UniProtKB/TrEMBL annotation:
Residues 36-167 form the VTT domain. The keyword Transmembrane applies. The lineage of its organism: Bacteria, Bacillati, Actinomycetota, Actinomycetes, Kitasatosporales. It comes from Streptomyces toxytricini (Actinomyces toxytricini). This is DedA family protein. The chain crosses the membrane at residues 12-28, 62-84, 147-169, 175-198.
Amino acid sequence: MFETLGSLTTSPWIYAVVALSVVLDVFLPVLPSGVLVITAAAAAAAAGAAGPVPVPEQVPDIAALLVIAATSSVLGDMAAFRVARRGGGRLERAIARSRRLTLAQERLGTALARGGGALVVIARFAPAGRSVVSLGAGKTHRKVTEFLPWSALAGMAWAGYSVALGYFGTQWLGAAWLGTAVSVLALFAAGALAGFVIRRPSPAV
């Protein structure tokens, strides 16, 4: 898989693929958007370490990759937020059937009502956590001004973490494939930790 993604990073379409993947994975959490961002950053790091060797023009620019990943994350969140606000009874019934969705929705509402949206940031790293939070915020008709700033912070944190993993991991380990593999494991570890924090019962007030 890494070889396939690696060849994609030299394509002029890499930014469009990253943007589309990050936007859509709020609806399809199985999309490897994080892996794709890491692989693109690793390719940029490997090209930078090549020294005097000519660098292909298609190698991703780190700054552009960071901005596109963060922006696409927010756009995807807001799309899910809008869909959920207009979802009606079908979405409500789907959420009601899932204890995890119901619990996450309740916790999100409490967190946003208290002016603290750290849960939105943490959930961005958890498997399907972004979907739960964005849909839950829309379904409960939270104000855009309550949700958007935390979504933006979550997108920047996730994009910064993913890009830094791929870029610095490859620089430190010296090989793009090794840096990518280790960085992906670190991304999954962060997701597992975030999932644990979200599932942990809230302390009694």
